[in-house]
Design the sequence.
C-alpha cells in the first residue's frame, strides 16, 4: 500500500515527538511492505512566525491532498497576545472545519503497567477502556452569533451553542457503530435539564438508536458524568457528546490513565483523517528531550487503523508500546519508583526496537 501523509509538527514539543512517530511508521511500512510518503508543512505558531497566519493555504492544500494528516501540537505563550483569529489554536479549528472532521475519537485505555501513575486507586481504574466520541465541528465552538460588543457600561461577550438534527445524527451513528465493535454500550452526555440544544441532542440520539437496538443507550447529564468518571470509570464504554463537553470530559478521562502524554486521538468524517495526541504543546518542557512521545506514536497507530484499515500494523505498534512499558522504561510524566527514566528520543528508539519482536 502507498500513502501520502501530511506532517504538521507545530509548536513546543511537537517537533520532538513527531519524528518518533515517523520512524515507527517507516519501520512498520518496511516490515509489512507499505510505503508512506511524508511531506511537512507549517502550522500554528511556527506558521504565524513565518507567514503571519496559523493555517497558511499551502498547509491546508497539502492536508486536503494527502491521505491522512499527522499533527503534533500547536500554541505557546509567545502567541497568546494575538487576536483570536490569528492564534495558533485557530489552525486546529480550521483544519477540523475545512477537512470536515466532525467526529473526534479519544480512547482512554489504561496500560496496567501504569496503574500506579494515576491519581486514582488501582482498583478504581484497573481495566478501564473508555472511548470519548466528541462532536468536533459544531456546538459553541462554531455557533453564530459570537463576538464581543460594547454596552453602555462595558462589554458583552457571547457565543452560541447550536446543533442541528443532521449534526447530531451523524455523530450518534459514529458512536453506535463504534460501540458495536466494543462492549455495545453508549452513554450520551448532555445538559438536557437546562439547554434546548441538549433537549434536541437527546431526542435525536434516541431516534438514531432505533437502528442500533443491539447497543445499549444511556443518558447522563454532563455534571454527573464528570463525577462518575472519577467515581467509577469502568461503567463507561463509549461516551458520545458535544464539542465543548467532549473537550472537557476527554481531558478528565485521559488523566485516569496516569498521564495525558499517553493518549492519541483520531479526527474523522471525510476522506482525510487527522491524527494527533490529545495533549498540547507543553512549552514548559519543550526542547528538553523530556516529552512523552507515546501519545504521538499511538496516534500513528490510530491512523493505520482508521484511515488505512491496517489493523495488524496498528496492533504491532500498540504491542510494542506495551512491551517497552513492561520492560520498565518511563518518561518523566509516568516515572515511578523502580522504573527506568528515559528521554523522548530514547523512548522512541525503544518502541522502534521492540516492533514485531516476540
Ligand atoms: C483539544 C484542544 C483544542 C480544543 C484547542 C487547542 C483549540 O483543547 O483538541 O482538545 O479545544 O478543541
Ligand atoms: Mg482540549
Sequence:
Amino acid at each position: 500500500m502507498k500513502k501520502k501523509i501530511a506532517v504538521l509538527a507545530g509548536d513546543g514539543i511537537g517537533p520532538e515527538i513527531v519524528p518518533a512517530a515517523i520512524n515507527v511508521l517507516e519501520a512498520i511500512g518496511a516490515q509489512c511492505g507499505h510505503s508512506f510518503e511524508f511531506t511537512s508543512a507549517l502550522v500554528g505558531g511556527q506558521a504565524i512566525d513565518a507567514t503571519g497566519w496559523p493555517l497558511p493555504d499551502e498547509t491546508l492544500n497539502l492536508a486536503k491532498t494527502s491521505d491522512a494528516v499527522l499533527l503534533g501540537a500547536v500554541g505557546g505563550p509567545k502567541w497568546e497576545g494575538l487576536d483570536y483569529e490569528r492564534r495558533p489554536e485557530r489552525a486546529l479549528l480550521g483544519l477540523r472545519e475545512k477537512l470536515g472532521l466532525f467526529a473526534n475519537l479519544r480512547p482512554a485505555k489504561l496500560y496496567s503497567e501504569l496503574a500506579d501513575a494515576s491519581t486514582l486507586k488501582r482498583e478504581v481504574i484497573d481495566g478501564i477502556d473508555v472511548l470519548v466520541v466528541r462532536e468536533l465541528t459544531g456546538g459553541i465552538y462554531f455557533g453564530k452569533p459570537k463576538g464581543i460588543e460594547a454596552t453602555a457600561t462595558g462589554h458583552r461577550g457571547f457565543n452560541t451553542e447550536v446543533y442541528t438534527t443532521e449534526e447530531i445524527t451523524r455523530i450518534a451513528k459514529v458512536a453506535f457503530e463504534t460501540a458495536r465493535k466494543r462492549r455495545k454500550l453508549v452513554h450520551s452526555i448532555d445538559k438536557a435539564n437546562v439547554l434546548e440544544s441538549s433537549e434536541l441532542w437527546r431526542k435525536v440520539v434516541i431516534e438514531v438508536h432505533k437502528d442500533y437496538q443491539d447497543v445499549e443507550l444511556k443518558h447522563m447529564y454532563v455534571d454527573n458524568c464528570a463525577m462518575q468518571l472519577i467515581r467509577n470509570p469502568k461503567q463507561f464504554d463509549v461516551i458520545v457528546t458535544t464539542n465543548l463537553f467532549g473537550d472537557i470530559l476527554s481531558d478528565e478521562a485521559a488523566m485516569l490513565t496516569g498521564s495525558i502524554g499517553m493518549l492519541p486521538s483520531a479526527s474523522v468524517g471525510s476522506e482525510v483523517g487527522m491524527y494527533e495526541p490529545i495533549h498540547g504543546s507543553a512549552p514548559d518542557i519543550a526542547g528538553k528531550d523530556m516529552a512523552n512521545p507515546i501519545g504521538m506514536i499511538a496516534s500513528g497507530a490510530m491512523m493505520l487503523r482508521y484511515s488505512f484499515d491496517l489493523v495488524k500494523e496498528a496492533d504491532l505498534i500498540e504491542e510494542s508500546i506495551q512491551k517497552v512499558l513492561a520492560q520498565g522504561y518511563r518518561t518523566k510524566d509516568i516515572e515511578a519508583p523502580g522504573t527506568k527514566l528515559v528521554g523522548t528520543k530514547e523512548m522512541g528508539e525503544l518502541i522502534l526496537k521492540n516492533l514485531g519482536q516476540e
